[in-house]
Specification:
Blueprint (H helix, E strand, L loop, with lengths): L4 E5 L5 E6 L3 E6 L4 E7 L27 E2 L23 E8 L5 E7 L3 H4 L6 E9 L3 E9 L5 E3 L1 E3 L2 E3 L6 E4 L5 E4 L5 E4 L10 E6 L4 E5 L4 E8 L3 E6 L1 H8 L11 E8 L5 E3 L4 E12 L1
Bound molecules: 6-O-phosphono-beta-D-tagatofuranose (TA6).
């Protein structure tokens, strides 16, 4: 086993992979293939946000880090009894491989283990492989392969929670001139004219394949979100009332210190995967000084 990684059993029987190399520390829950922690050693502040009362329980998603939404994003298109954002984030994955890279980063490769209950929710068979590279940047690549004889459609996304100085201090750029669908405005659409600032609940899906940036003057930094094979970006903050109602968004004001900027493919950007073909969506997070 690679020396920079350690498998640990923690609360409620959840297993984690801990990674500690010369460049960064990270933790990945095998439930959900969920990076619940990553911090480059050079960073002055945390980069990912994780709720102080995140639930570490079998079958529940962890509030923070990088939840994987697959094979549908948001509500199931036809059956509301299926779990929101798909089942990939709440079922077991297993480690296939870990490699120490020459630049000091650590690469791990995971595959999802479909349970009997979730297999019943699908009409097709598939393979899902998640590659994570932990270093000065955090890289994720999710590859879906169609093992059936007919095409199928998925929506997907990295529902990533970023740590920020305060929701009122930041702006999200890279989405100017993109078309959006606004969940708060009854799925109305529009075109984003400027960089995004926040003074209320915000939940929009953008049709966009550009890289995005979270500019945070108080932290004197920008978080760069590189995207590959992703034609949607979701931007979300629950604001106070919804955050307090959710029960796992941390103490009173903790929600102010996070924003979700999600590399995704959904709505009209959902992906058709043909038999024996694969599709990959990738994202990479890094931090620069402003
Ligand atoms: O990505 C934004 C969103 O779909 C919001 O509408 C919001 O409800 C959020 O995700 C959180 O979803 P979750 O199922 O993790 O509580």
């Amino acid at each position: 086993m690679n020396k920079s990684i350690k498998i640990i059993d923690e609360v409620d029987g959840l297993q984690f992979i801990e990674i500690d190399n010369s460049l960064a520390v990270a933790r990945v829950a095998l439930q959900g293939g969920h990076v619940d922690w990553w911090r480059p050693k050079s960073a002055k502040q945390d980069v990912l946000w994780r709720s102080s009362n995140a639930r570490y329980e079998k079958g529940r998603s962890i509030r923070g880090g990088v939840p994987i939404c697959w094979p549908w994003f948001g509500k199931h298109p036809t059956d509301g009894s299926f779990c929101a954002h798909g089942f990939a984030r709440v079922i077991p994955w297993k480690l296939l491989e870990s490699v120490q890279l020459k630049n000091g980063a650590t690469k791990i490769v995971l595959t999802m283990i479909p349970t009997e209950a979730v297999t019943k929710q699908l009409t097709y068979s598939f393979e899902l492989i998640l590659t994570i590279i932990v270093g000065e940047s955090l890289y994720l690549n999710l590859e879906t392969t169609n093992l059936s004889d007919s095409p199928f459609v998925i929506s997907e996304g990295y529902h990533t929670y970023f740590y920020i100085s305060d929701i009122k201090n930041i702006k999200v750029t890279g989405l100017e001139n993109s078309t959006y669908t606004d969940k708060i405005d009854n799925f109305g659409s529009g075109i984003e004219k400027k960089s995004i600032t926040f003074n209320n609940e915000f939940d929009r899906v953008y049709t966009n394949s550009n890289d995005c940036y979270i500019e945070d003057e108080k932290f004197n930094r920008v978080i760069t979100i590189k995207k590959s094979n992703s034609n949607s970006t979701v931007v979300w903050t629950p604001w106070e009332e919804k955050a307090l109602a959710m029960g796992d968004m941390g103490e009173k004001d903790e929600w102010r210190r996070m924003v979700c900027v999600e590399t995704a493919n959904l709505l009209e950007n959902s992906v058709v995967i043909y038999p024996k073909m694969s599709h990959s969506i990738a994202t990479e997070y890094s931090v620069q000084e402003l």
